[in-house]
């Protein structure tokens, strides 16, 4: 499972830093989560997950507060949650999650991004069966054995615990996301380098250099779409 989560996150944050696009996407996601339930993370688990992710990307408090206040105000801005599946160069696989107020526009934009960058859209279920929904939580300052002891003491299950670069990464079932964090917090850990609910490929593939360059263009084209929130794939992009 060595996906180098810190490298992936840092590359994405660096890519989005100059445009603040990542902040806009978080603002939308926080608003949607807050509107679907109580605008309080203690009683709204979906909102709590989004806020935990936002912390690891250093999303400004003002953006978080603005999105939650917008939900509290009863704003009638409605978004549909969509998932697209498709294939990139050399049979690579992608899952694209979007939030949109215009389904036709988003479908057209996603399809165009695939077709212009060596990929093609698939039908529902054509790719997702090769991915597992997974909670990924990263911490620093502990060894994998220490984290394992903390989770065992709290009777919390994990699929795997790996040391990656300077972090320890916990892979767990999605419904263990909060339990893992709570166990680590009770052990004195207050900051997380990663806090994601993601789709993890069961098997990664390595592409030849030319195909990888094309694949990265496809990823960039999808992530540049305002309606796209997350792109998951099965390609080992290295560091």
List the helices and strands and how they pair.
Layout lengths: L4 H13 L3 H16 L8 H12 L4 H12 L7 E8 L5 E8 L2 H13 L4 E3 L8 E10 L3 H10 L6 E5 L2 E6 L4 H10 L7 E8 L7 H15 L4 E6 L6
Antiparallel strand pairs: 1-2, 1-3, 2-8, 4-6, 4-7, 5-6
Helix pairs in contact: 2-3, 2-4
Mean pLDDT: 90
Q: Extract low-pLDDT stretches.
A: none
Count the DSSP helices.
Answer: 8
Global morphology: globular
* Multimerization state: single chain
- The SSE order reads HHHHEEHEEHEEHEHE
The tally of strands reads: 8
Residue share in β-strands = 15-25%
The helix-and-strand class reads alpha+beta
End-to-end span in angstroms?
14 Å
Q: Give the biggest sheet.
A: 4 strands, antiparallel
Radius of gyration: 18 Å
Q: Which sequence of strands runs across the widest sheet?
A: 3-1-2-8
Q: Which range best describes the helical content: under 10%, 10-25%, 25-40%, 40-55%, 55-70% or over 70%?
A: 40-55%
How would you sum up this structure, described in words?
By secondary structure, this protein is of the alpha+beta class. 42% of the residues lie in helices and 23% in strands. The protein is built from eight helices and eight strands. The chain has helices at 5-17, 21-36, 45-56, 61-72, 103-115, 144-153, 177-186, 209-223; strands spanning 80-87, 93-100, 120-122, 131-140, 160-164, 167-172, 194-201, 228-233. Strands 3-1-2-8 form a four-stranded antiparallel sheet. The chain has a four-stranded antiparallel sheet with strand order 5-6-4-7, with helices on both faces. Helix 2 packs parallel to helix 4 (61-72). The radius of gyration is 18 Å and the shape is globular. It starts with a helix and ends in a 6-residue tail after the last strand.
């Amino acid at each position: 499972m060595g996906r180098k989560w810190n490298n992936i996150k840092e590359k994405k944050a660096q890519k989005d830093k100059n445009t603040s696009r990542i902040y806009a996407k978080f603002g939308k996601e926080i608003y949607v989560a807050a509107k679907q339930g109580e605008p309080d993370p203690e009683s709204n688990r979906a909102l709590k997950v989004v806020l935990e992710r936002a912390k690891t990307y250093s999303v400004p408090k003002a953006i978080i507060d603005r999105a939650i206040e917008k939900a509290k105000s009863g704003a009638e801005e409605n978004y549909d949650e969509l998932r697209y599946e498709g294939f990139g160069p050399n049979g690579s696989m992608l899952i694209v999650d979007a939030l949109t107020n215009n389904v036709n526009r988003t479908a057209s934009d996603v399809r165009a991004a695939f077709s212009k960058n060596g990929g093609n859209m698939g039908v529902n279920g054509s790719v997702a069966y090769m991915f597992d929904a997974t909670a990924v939580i990263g911490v620093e300052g502990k060894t994998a054995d220490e984290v394992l002891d903390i989770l065992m003491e709290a009777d919390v299950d994990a699929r795997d615990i790996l040391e990656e670069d300077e972090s320890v990464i916990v892979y767990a079932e999605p419904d263990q996301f909060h339990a893992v964090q709570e166990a680590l917090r009770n052990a004195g850990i207050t900051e997380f380098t990663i806090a994601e609910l993601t789709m993890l490929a069961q098997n990664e593939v390595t592409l030849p250099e030319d195909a990888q360059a094309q694949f990265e263009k496809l990823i960039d084209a999808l992530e540049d779409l305002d309606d796209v929130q997350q792109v998951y794939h099965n390609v080992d992009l290295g560091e």
